[in-house]
């Protein structure tokens, strides 16, 4: 059993959906999975395994921020041989091109974190999604949500929920960044280090330009479209082995 997940071998499926909020993990399991069983409650970070359309799927909370996600992603890949992780989280729109409740599929993740600078000794590594998952998610999104309200592009994984220099975000927007969240850059990097597949599919929960926002309950329990997109993409028969 791993230090933080505490699951037994075989408890976790090859595909894991990873929300930041452990209560969203429980909601996903209750809403989408058949015969879901809780395999961990360590530190309140719930994990469940069940089936969706007859195929095994797990859902695991990661907590907020790259350091927390890195712990769980590392253990999933190293200790449980997970092949694909799809983050299903919330994000904040940084441009008026994106609206609240739109879906952002992250092709790559910019960051202000020092984690990759330490890993690569000062080099600027560019964390990107697995293309097969990205393509499958885009195709699924057109079926689930239609073309309107679905965006594929760069996101910004920030280490600060309340940034000391918010004006710096404008420069990112000028270079095509659509939304901000706190985990994808670490997920993409760790997946690459293990030769596994990763993707972030996020729902816009609040808007940094207009000030519009959803409630905590809405963020926990009403972002079903992104979950269906993630499940469809993650179980796509067109994906090559990791």
TrEMBL record:
EC number(s) recorded for this UniProt protein: 2.4.2.3
EC class, as a word, reads: transferase
Keyword list, A-Z: Glycosyltransferase, Transferase
Biological process GO annotation list?
purine nucleoside catabolic process
Concerning InterPro entries, the annotation shows: DeoD-type (IPR004402), Nucleoside_phosphorylase_CS (IPR018016), Nucleoside_phosphorylase_d (IPR000845), Nucleoside_phosphorylase_sf (IPR035994)
* Keyword Transferase included in the entry's annotation: yes
Q: Name the domain of life.
A: Bacteria
> Which HAMAP family does the UniProt record give?
Pur_nucleosid_phosp
Name of the protein this chain belongs to? Uridine phosphorylase
Q: Provide the species name.
A: Nocardioides lianchengensis
């Amino acid at each position: 059993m791993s230090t933080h997940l505490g699951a037994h071998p075989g408890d976790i499926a090859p595909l894991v959906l990873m929300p930041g909020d452990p209560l969203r993990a429980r909601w996903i399991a209750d809403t989408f999975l058949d015969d879901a069983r809780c395999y961990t409650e360590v530190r309140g970070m719930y994990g469940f395994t069940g089936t969706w359309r007859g195929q095994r799927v797990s859902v695991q909370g990661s907590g907020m921020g790259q350091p927390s996600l890195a712990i769980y992603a590392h253990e999933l890949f190293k200790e449980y041989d997970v092949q694909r992780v799809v983050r299903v989280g919330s994000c904040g729109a940084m441009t008026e091109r994106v609206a609240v409740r739109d879906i952002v599929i992250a092709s790559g993740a910019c960051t202000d974190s020092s984690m990759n600078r330490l890993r690569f000794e000062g080099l600027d590594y560019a964390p990107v999604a697995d293309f097969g998952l990205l393509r499958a998610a885009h195709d699924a999104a057109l079926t689930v949500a239609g073309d309107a309200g679905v965006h594929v592009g760069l996101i910004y994984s920030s280490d600060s929920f309340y940034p000391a220099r918010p004006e710096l975000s404008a420069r990112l927007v000028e270079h095509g960044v659509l939304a901000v969240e706190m985990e994808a850059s670490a997920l993409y990097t760790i997946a690459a280090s293990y030769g596994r597949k990763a993707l972030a599919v996020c729902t816009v929960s609040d808007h940094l330009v207009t000030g519009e926002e959803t409630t905590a309950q809405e963020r926990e329990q009403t972002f079903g479209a992104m979950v269906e997109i993630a499940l469809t993409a993650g179980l796509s028969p067109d994906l090559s082995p990791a």
